[in-house]
């Protein structure tokens, strides 16, 4: 039960603080809210400059309970040198990207010890940083907005040894997340490769075995009204609403929002050396994108049998 509560509390704490702050505005403590929002005006662009990470927050004991519940594991295959910057492509998205969160925005799996001198930044929707207090919580874990301004800053004005983790498939990939399926949305996702070329940041394929196993989802067929609604949300808001469920809070025999306790193993592959090209051509982008796709498939094939998949399992690249 302790691990189940931990799995909830870490994710919900920031949202709860935002609600409490808004509530205080309607009480005798309204001045606290006014002072915070006044300060927020001057601090608005901090997330775009790497934020304010806190090793204390990243090392909270609650993250270790969160890790052990599934459990979640981070596997290193190659060293990363601190004189380079990196873009990690994280696959698959799953419903919530729990492996990405645990491995790169906390120290539960000892990412800083496994990759000494490398500072990970997990990129997520910029809209999350418009929520008061929640933004502070996200920044404390080293989470940043997934937009060009932020990535340009981290790769050009923040020194070396930075690793930006981008969940490449995004909302579109989450729509196909289901247990037993290993599929990524990548074939037409080339923006991250262009960014890597512009900054000379090495690309690192990363695959999380088990990410799709922790929730069950209702999959709407292409052309159905449900898929139409999801795509409209994705286009105009940036995320796609999914109808999914996990287990109940007090019983694994009931439905709820607690994820199933299925192992998630995130394997970080070999970095692909990328040259710095201020104006990369489409030919350059296509070349390194093809190299990245090949490296990701190779990573999947080299490790799939170690984590419960049959030798015949094929990674579907869409």
From TrEMBL:
Task: List the InterPro entries hit by this protein, alphabetically.
Answer: DAGAT
**Catalytic class of the enzyme:** transferase
Q: Which UniProt keywords apply?
A: Acyltransferase, Cytoplasm, Endoplasmic reticulum, Glycerol metabolism, Lipid biosynthesis, Lipid droplet, Lipid metabolism, Membrane, Transferase, Transmembrane, Transmembrane helix
Q: Give an example GO biological process.
A: triglyceride biosynthetic process
What EC number(s) does this enzyme carry? 2.3.1.-
- Top-rank lineage group of the source organism: Eukaryota
Question: According to Swiss-Prot or TrEMBL, what is its membrane topology?
Answer: Multi-pass membrane protein
* Catalytic function, reaction form: all-trans-retinol + hexadecanoyl-CoA = all-trans-retinyl hexadecanoate + CoA; 1,2-di-(9Z-octadecenoyl)-sn-glycerol + (9Z)-octadecenoyl-CoA = 1,2,3-tri-(9Z-octadecenoyl)-glycerol + CoA; 2-(9Z-octadecenoyl)-glycerol + hexadecanoyl-CoA = 1-hexadecanoyl-2-(9Z-octadecenoyl)-sn-glycerol + CoA; 1,2-di-(9Z-octadecenoyl)-sn-glycerol + hexadecanoyl-CoA = 1,2-di-(9Z)-octadecenoyl-3-hexadecanoyl-sn-glycerol + CoA
Q: What is this protein called?
A: Acyltransferase
Origin species, per record, is: Trichechus manatus latirostris (Florida manatee)
């Amino acid at each position: 039960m302790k691990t189940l509560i931990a799995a909830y509390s870490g994710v919900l704490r920031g949202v709860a603080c935002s609600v409490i702050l808004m509530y205080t505005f309607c009480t005798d403590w309204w001045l606290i809210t006014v002072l915070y929002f006044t300060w927020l005006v001057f601090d608005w662009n901090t997330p775009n400059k790497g934020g304010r990470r806190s090793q204390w927050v990243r090392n909270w004991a609650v993250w270790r309970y969160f890790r052990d519940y599934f459990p979640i594991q981070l596997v290193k295959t190659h060293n990363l040198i601190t004189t380079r910057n990196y873009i990690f492509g994280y696959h698959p998205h799953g419903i919530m990207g729990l492996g990405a969160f645990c491995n790169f925005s906390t120290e539960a799996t000892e990412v800083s010890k496994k990759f000494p001198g490398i500072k990970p930044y997990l990129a997520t929707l910029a809209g999350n940083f418009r929520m008061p207090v929640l933004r502070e919580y996200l920044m404390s874990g080293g989470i940043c907005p997934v937009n060009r301004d932020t990535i340009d800053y981290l790769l050009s004005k923040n020194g070396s040894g930075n690793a930006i983790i981008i969940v490449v498939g995004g909302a579109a990939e989450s729509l196909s997340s289901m247990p037993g399926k290993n599929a990524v949305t990548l074939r037409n996702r080339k923006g991250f490769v262009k960014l890597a070329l512009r900054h000379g940041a090495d690309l690192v394929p990363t695959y999380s075995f088990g990410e799709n196993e922790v929730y069950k989802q209702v999959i709407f067929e292409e052309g159905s009204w449900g898929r139409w609604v999801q795509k409209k949300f994705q286009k105009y808001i940036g995320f796609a609403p999914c109808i999914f469920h996990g287990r109940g809070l007090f019983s694994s025999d009931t439905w709820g929002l607690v994820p199933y306790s299925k192992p998630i193993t995130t394997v970080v592959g070999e970095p692909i050396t990328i040259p710095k090209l201020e104006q990369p051509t489409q030919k350059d982008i296509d070349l390194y994108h093809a190299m990245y796709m090949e490296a990701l498939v190779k990573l999947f094939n080299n490790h799939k049998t170690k984590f419960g998949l049959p030798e015949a399992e094929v990674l579907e690249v869409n």
